[in-house]
Design goal:
- By secondary structure, the protein is of the alpha/beta class.
- It is about 30% helix and about 20% strand.
- It is built from 8 helices and 8 strands; from the N terminus they run E-H-E-H-E-H-E-H-E-E-H-E-H-E-H-H.
- Strands 1-8-7-6-5-4-3-2 form an 8-stranded parallel sheet.
- Strand 7, helix 6 and strand 8 form a beta-alpha-beta unit.
- Helix 2 packs parallel to helix 3.
- The radius of gyration is 16 Å and the shape is globular.
- The two termini are about 25 Å apart.
- Bound molecules: D-xylitol-5-phosphate and zinc ion.
- The site of zinc ion (ZN) has 6 residues, from strand 2.
């Protein structure tokens, strides 16, 4: 199975209960989660502040899951070295914050991480056409970044399909990830449009049984509904 066709469920740390972090990471592993999504926000690129290298390092100790680190920060290259050393697996930077995108993606790979680029709802997918071959992951934001628990933006479904076509036309095996408002209600539409990796924060961590929720989300993929 090519990486692009394998479903990846990535619960987001942002909605976890930090007072019980070890337990919260163990429960998603029990549910069969594939990645832990770690949202880094700097209060500049987005109006919210979250974690840095110390928290990534802590997660690295607490779980075996690959760490899917989403940098919602300006000047993301300042953090590649310390985040790679802390144990990040994927480093995804925003198109809107990366004027030297080609060079920045190459730097991420030099640090031994998978290189991802994220695009906001207002950014056309065509803007990343010229770096498709430099990507291990393309993240289509399905909300405006900054907060968990927001409503899925329906108009992004067409963009997911255009992103899938862009990757396929280039013969790319990069993951196509979606992030924001992913739930039992929205995940299947994203899967049908061509996404294979799904971030879910509130849906997983506000569920009565987060492990079961991870299984339920996976169950919504691979089927036409
Ligand atoms: C939003 C973050 C998301 C967030 C998703 O800016 O990038 O990863 O955790 O949360 P939900 O799934 O609650 O929309
Ligand atoms: Zn995210």
């Amino acid at each position: 199975m090519s990486p692009a066709s394998a479903v990846r469920i990535a619960p987001s740390l942002l909605s976890a209960d930090f007072g019980r972090l070890a337990e919260q990471l163990a429960i998603i592993e029990q549910g069969g989660a594939d990645w832990l999504h770690v949202d880094v926000m700097d209060g500049v690129f987005v109006p919210n502040l979250t974690f840095g290298a110390k928290v990534i390092e802590t997660c690295r100790r607490l779980t075996r899951l690959p760490l899917d680190v989403h940098l919602m920060v300006v000047e993301p290259e300042k953090y590649f070295d310390s985040f790679a050393a802390a144990g990040a697996s994927n480093l995804t930077i925003h198109f809107e914050a990366a004027p030297h995108l080609h060079r920045q993606l190459a730097r991420i790979r030099e640090f031994g991480c998978n290189a991802g680029v994220a695009i906001n709802p207002g950014t056309p997918v065509e803007h990343v056409r010229d770096v498709v071959r430099d990507l291990d992951l393309l993240l289509v934001m399905t909300v405006n970044p900054g907060f968990g628990g927001q409503k899925f933006i329906e108009s992004t479904v067409g963009k997911i399909a255009r992103a899938r076509a862009l990757l396929d036309d280039a013969g790319s095996g990069a993951h196509l990830e979606v992030d924001g408002g992913i739930s039992r209600e929205t995940i299947n539409r994203c899967w049908q449009a061509g996404a294979n990796a799904f971030v879910a924060g509130a849906a997983v961590y506000t569920a009565p049984d987060p492990a079961e929720e991870v299984r339920a989300l996976r169950g919504r993929c691979g089927v036409q509904v």
